[in-house]
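Thread: Nucleoid-associated protein HNQ92_000353, structure

OP (GT): Posting the sequence first so everyone is looking at the same thing. Length is 115 residues per the record. Can we get the structure tokens written out before standup tomorrow? I want them in the notebook alongside the other entries.
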Amino acid sequence: MFGNMGDMMGLMGKMKDLQARMKEAQEQLSTITESAESGAGMVRATVNGQKKITALEIDADLIKPEDKEMLQDLVVAAVNKALDDIEPKIKAHLQKATEGVIPNIPGLDLSGLMK
């Protein structure tokens, strides 16, 4: 399958390199951010590439007991949009981090290695 033992060793070396690059890329994901708004900008959520919320801004007009449910819905909407919007940035970052280590295989999704 691999020809000779040298090819196998080369492949193992590439896997180690890939793992090292993925670890470094994962650490760098905290520097990639995306923000999204809901309620015409009354709620703004910022997330990073590690899918953690880094900031949440809420317009003071929304902070009323009678608007609690609406506020909760707007926070969920803003956070979910920010998480959706950051996905392409995460994929692009991981692809760039592993460039040259593994061939660019269409459909290969490395985000599964991000656990």
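GT: Both are above now. Quick notes for whoever picks this up: The mean pLDDT is 85. The radius of gyration is 20 Å.
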